[in-house]
């Protein structure tokens, strides 16, 4: 009889912990929208939220200038190391007169963007964080975020915004 009471008590305690955890998770997800991780994003001029945040891990084994097909572009050098495949795909359903992509990371990052009209690279847009601003045509853009040391992966957030800084 005592063993039965103990098992029932453990089951009730376990159920209460599960309910508490479920409640906490739901409250957290209601409080703020979780950013996309290594996600593909499709936006138009009226996208929301603005800024939109996606997360990833910078770096890889392939040289940035190999992926970009050149050593430098009008927006900066094609430095660092990236994965062979892009970290994100950004699809713009309309033309943007101004759009800013900016990386935030605890260490130095690089960026490569390939899309309609060409390839753009950047290093040190804002301090050691990479970014690209300007006019963007509708279409699909591949985005790589790189690190300076081959095979070193660092967490980052990529902010996509129409806010002029």
Task: Describe the overall structure.
The protein has about 160 residues and is of the alpha+beta class. Helices cover about 20% and strands about 40% of the residues. It has a five-stranded mixed sheet with strand order 1-3-14-9-12, with no helix packed on it. A five-stranded mixed sheet has the order 2-8-13-10-11. Strands 4-7 form a two-stranded antiparallel sheet. A hairpin with a 2-residue loop joins strand 5 (about 70-75) and strand 6 (about 75).
Structure, briefly:
The protein has 165 residues and is an alpha+beta fold. Helices cover 21% and strands 42% of the residues.
List the helices and strands and how they pair.
Layout: H1 2-31, E1 36-37, E2 41-43, E3 52-58, E4 62-63, H2 64-68, E5 72-73, E6 76-77, E7 81-82, E8 88-92, E9 96-104, E10 109-115, E11 118-123, E12 131-136, E13 139-147, E14 154-161
Parallel strand pairs: 1-3, 2-8
Antiparallel strand pairs: 3-14, 4-7, 5-6, 8-13, 9-12, 9-14, 10-11, 10-13
Give the CA-based shape. globular
The biggest beta sheet is recorded as: 5 strands, mixed
How are the strands ordered across the major sheet? 1-3-14-9-12
Question: How far apart lie the N and C ends?
Answer: 70 Å
The strand count comes to 14
What fraction of residues sit in β-strands? 35-45%
**Structural class given helices, strands, pairing?**
alpha+beta
**Mean model confidence by pLDDT:** 83
Number of helices: 2
Radius of gyration: 21 Å
Helix content estimate: 10-25%
Element pattern in H and E? HEEEEHEEEEEEEEEE
**Unreliable stretches, pLDDT < 50, 5 or more residues?**
3-35
């Amino acid at each position: 009889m005592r063993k039965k009471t103990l098992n029932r008590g453990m089951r009730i305690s376990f159920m209460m912990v599960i309910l508490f955890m479920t409640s906490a998770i739901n409250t957290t997800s209601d409080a703020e929208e979780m950013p996309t991780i290594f996600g593909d994003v499709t936006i138009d001029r009226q996208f929301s939220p603005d800024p939109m945040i996606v997360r990833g891990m910078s770096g890889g084994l392939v040289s940035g200038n190999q992926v970009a097909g050149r050593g430098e572009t009008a927006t900066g050098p094609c430095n660092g190391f990236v994965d062979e495949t892009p970290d994100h795909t950004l699809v713009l359903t309309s033309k943007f007169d101004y759009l800013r992509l900016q990386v935030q990371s605890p260490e130095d990052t690089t960026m490569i963007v390939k899309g309609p009209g060409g390839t753009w690279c950047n290093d040190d847009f804002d301090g050691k964080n990479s970014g690209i601003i300007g006019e963007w045509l509708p279409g699909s853009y591949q985005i790589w975020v790189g690190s300076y040391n081959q095979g070193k992966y660092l967490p980052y957030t990529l902010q996509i915004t129409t806010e002029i800084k």
